[in-house]
Amino acid sequence: MAISIDPRAAELLGHDQHLPPVSPLHFSRDALLSRFAQPPQWQPDVDVEKWYCAPDPVHAAVLVPLVMRDRASVLLTQRTAHLRKHAGQISFPGGRMEPTDADAVAAALREAQEEVGLDPQRVEVLGSLPTYTTGTGFIVTPVVGLIVPHDHDHPWLSLQPDPGEVEEVFEVPLDFLMDPRHHQRRAFDLSGTSLEFFSMPWSSEAGKEYFIWGATAAMLRNLYRFLSA
């Protein structure tokens, strides 16, 4: 069963104003390495979409790329409008695991290279978050990695998006995404059942709005829980 909705038109239930933002002190390389090396006791907010009904789920992996600028950011993509699934949506680089992939990390790095031209050697893998099962039947492993945009050994980060899959590559400040005041709880009605989801609308300095929602927003919400626990 395919679910087709306009997430912007879904009912806005509210924001989580009562939850504290993650301190930017936790966004340094050392702090992130320490958190993944010794993870806290925590629980993801959501790990399966309520409209999941796929009989044969497919394993997939995405890369959650944290770009280590003076103000850390998350690299995201906007998918092209012609794709069969998740067309036009904001996503992490990633896709289904192939038989040649040794594990989810290998799949995430391969997909990121194929989709946006990110050299796997530019990624320092921190670890993975719990899987997230989408309504379209993908069991997704989010692999979190650090990217240093430039240093003595690496020139400025230059990406080459695959025009067949990726409309645009952009970055959102990590402190914005890790602040629950920007986490909207929304819901749409499906045959009398209210199905809730997170959204995190963000506008660039140029004034363009990127409506982050669904699986991407949920995995970012789980990253928030992991870093704030």
Automatic annotation (TrEMBL):
Q: Which UniProt keywords apply?
A: Hydrolase, Magnesium, Manganese, Metal-binding
Q: In this record, what's one Pfam family?
A: NUDIX
Cofactors: Mg(2+); Mn(2+)
| Coiled-coil annotated spans | none
Keyword Nucleotide-binding among UniProt keywords: no
This protein's record includes keyword Hydrolase: yes
- Recorded GO MF terms: coenzyme A diphosphatase activity; metal ion binding
Q: Where is the Nudix hydrolase domain?
A: 57-194
Name of the protein in question: 8-oxo-dGTP pyrophosphatase MutT (NUDIX family)
Native organism is Aquabacterium commune
